[in-house]
Amino acid sequence: MRTQHLTYRGTVYPWHCDHVGHMNVMWYVGKFDEATWNLFHQIGITPGYLREQQRGMAAVDQHIEYKRELKAGDVVTVHTEILELHDKKIRFRHEMRSGDGGGKTGEVAAVTTLLGVHMDTQVRKSCAFPPALSQQMQEFMQHQA
């Protein structure tokens, strides 16, 4: 099994829950988004890099599978692995797990796969990752094997 990196840890609050008592889909997406930005930071796509280089990241494809309900008080983690790297694109997978509460510890609650594109924010078009950043991302992937 490949190594996944911890990219988020948090709690389900009562206001995250819908009328039937489990976490609403908007909060799954929000927690996955926070995990994405933590992943980006770990691989060198930092806020400083994005601002200084006038770059951005755009999600162009996302698929979510809901495996089990999460309820108020559940502690959750998101573990992430990079699946593919290309000149301008990165595909990665987040796995949200229950850390405590309504199910067995570590039980998978949801999985999402995303495709992100590296962009030049001035011309509003995709562009290649710089070589140093590509190298850093490749090294991160090697630690997953």
The fourth-level CATH homologous superfamily is Hotdog Thioesterase
Individual helix count: 3
The CATH class name reads Alpha Beta
Domains, number = 1
Could you spell the SSE succession in H and E letters?
EHHEEEEEH
Q: Largest beta sheet, briefly?
A: 6 strands, antiparallel
Return the structural class. alpha+beta
| CATH architectural grouping | Roll
Uncertain residue segments: none
Rg to the nearest angstrom?
16 Å
Distance between the termini: 8 Å
Q: What percent of residues adopt helix (DSSP H or I)? A: 10-25%
Strand content: 35-45%
User: Average pLDDT value?
Assistant: 93
CATH topology: Thiol Ester Dehydrase, Chain A
Number of strands: 6
Shape: globular
Walk me through this protein's architecture.
The chain is built from 3 helices and 6 strands; from the N terminus they run E-H-H-E-E-E-E-E-H. The chain is globular, with a radius of gyration of 16 Å. The relative contact order is 0.23. It has a single domain, classed as Thiol Ester Dehydrase, Chain A (Roll), CATH 3.10.129.10. Strands 1, 2, 3, 4, 5 and 6 form a 6-stranded antiparallel beta sheet that branches. By secondary structure, the protein is of the alpha+beta class. Helices cover 25% and strands 39% of the residues. Strand 5 and strand 6 form a beta hairpin.
